[in-house]
Amino acid sequence: MTSHDTAYAIGKQFHAALTAGAWEAIRSLLHPDATWTLPGDNTVSGTVVGADAVVRHAKKIAGYGLDFQLLHVLVSRENVALSLHNTARRDDAVLDEHLSTVCRLRDGRIADIETYLSDVPGMNAFFV
């Protein structure tokens, strides 16, 4: 398997585990010191540190009832990015955003995740 194949497989596995709520599967893809950073000023913004914190963060985000539609898996020489269209409704709040979740890999596992959003104000309004 090439590094591109490995990165692609990790990206697909991460998305599949997130949509299925397979938290232990996500945990198995992470380095113990993994981080996840999201923009904005809301309940899911900022950086969490450690594999357990990343899993708790994924659970928290998924707990808002998001539909994580995978548009593309993008690979570089050593890393992977997921192009997603996330949507959800909660009371009068509507989430409809395009994003890229960039996963930096180390030794075949996710070391850092950074999410880039199309609508930070919309994210702030939804994740209160």
From TrEMBL:
<dbReference type="InterPro" id="IPR032710">
    <property type="entry name" value="NTF2-like_dom_sf"/>
</dbReference>
<dbReference type="InterPro" id="IPR037401">
    <property type="entry name" value="SnoaL-like"/>
</dbReference>
<protein>
    <recommendedName>
        <fullName>SnoaL-like domain-containing protein</fullName>
    </recommendedName>
</protein>
<feature type="domain" description="SnoaL-like">
    <location>
        <begin position="13"/>
        <end position="112"/>
    </location>
</feature>
<dbReference type="Pfam" id="PF12680">
    <property type="entry name" value="SnoaL_2"/>
</dbReference>
